[in-house]
Design goal:
Length: about 260
């Protein structure tokens, strides 16, 4: 039997990259997938690809920074699709700017990154909490190698703080919701080739080389590399796993 049969899975930021791959992977394992993205067209394309491959998916536009929209979306999904048992908080942005740039830009980075990467995770989780508790659900949050500190590759204080926050939120939620049978875990991707870092890869190939030089497996990751761990954490295979982060980074963090 497929690993996620009879589950309804919500994936945020599923119009691209890692989220799109996870949505498709969950559908292949029998889940009915709710594809959410701020980019309505991209979300619709993911859902169409899943249906074309024989899976079950619908898509809706959602900006995770809009708290009321998240609550309304949870109601809409409950009415139109059914009770959600898996939530993947994947939507995110990255900017590699330090603290010493032009003040306005530094402040803007902080506000945008925290709003999407951290408050967005809170907003969507809070909105879908009721069905997730009812279903003894599973929450998978997308952290990063920046859920820990790495000086060898540049990040931004805002991005690093947001991904530390995602890990802290994951642990606190696992502690609080465990008694309801809800499991909460994170995935920490390493350097994964997606549209998120397309421009940086083109303009700064040295940065990609730096990442890969420090990665024991000696290559960049692909969105498909995240799918197995994401299926594992959403399925009964991980029935006694909660409050942890599974690094999917080619070994980056170990060296
Ligand atoms: P991506 O840029 O390919 O996809 C991100 C998706 O999130 C896009 O479809 C975008 O429209 C959506 N999104 C952005 N803001 C949104 C909002 N306010 N509301 C709803 N959706 C929104 O990026 P990628 O690489 O697939 O990243 C996915 C997650 O993985 C992010 O949380 C990112 O921080 C994380 N990550 C990525 C790594 C990488 O190397 N690509 C490494 C570590 C973590």
């Amino acid at each position: 039997m497929p690993l996620l049969q009879d589950h309804i899975a919500v994936v945020t930021g599923a119009g691209s990259g890692i989220g799109r791959a996870i949505a498709a992977g969950y559908a292949r394992e029998g889940a009915r997938v709710v594809v959410l993205d701020i980019n309505e067209k991209a979300a619709a394309e993911t859902a169409r690809e899943i249906r074309d491959a024989g899976g079950k998916a619908e898509s809706f536009a959602l900006d995770v920074t809009k708290r009321e929209a998240c609550v309304a979306m949870a109601r809409q999904v409950a009415d139109k699709v059914g009770p959600v048992s898996i939530l993947v908080n994947n939507a995110g942005i990255a900017r590699r700017n330090g603290m010493l740039g032009a003040a306005e830009a530094v402040v803007q980075d902080w506000e945008d990154i925290i709003a999407i990467n951290l408050t967005g995770v809170f907003n969507v989780t809070h909105a879908f909490l009721e069905p997730l508790r009812g279903a003894k659900g599973r929450i998978v949050n997308i952290g990063s190698i920046q859920s820990f500190l790495h000086l060898r590759t540049p990040s931004s204080p805002a991005y690093t703080a947001s991904k530390h926050g995602v890990l802290g939120f994951t642990r606190a939620l696992a502690a609080e919701l465990g008694k309801d049978g809800v499991r909460v875990n994170a995935i920490g991707p390493g350097f994964i080739e997606t549209p998120l870092n397309e421009k940086v890869r083109a303009s700064n190939p040295e940065l990609a080389k730096t990442f890969i030089a420090h990665t024991p497996l000696g290559r960049a990751g692909q969105p498909a590399d995240i799918v197995g761990p994401a299926v594992f954490l959403a399925s009964d295979l991980s029935a006694y796993v909660s409050g942890t982060i599974v690094m999917v980074d080619g070994g980056y963090r170990t060296v």
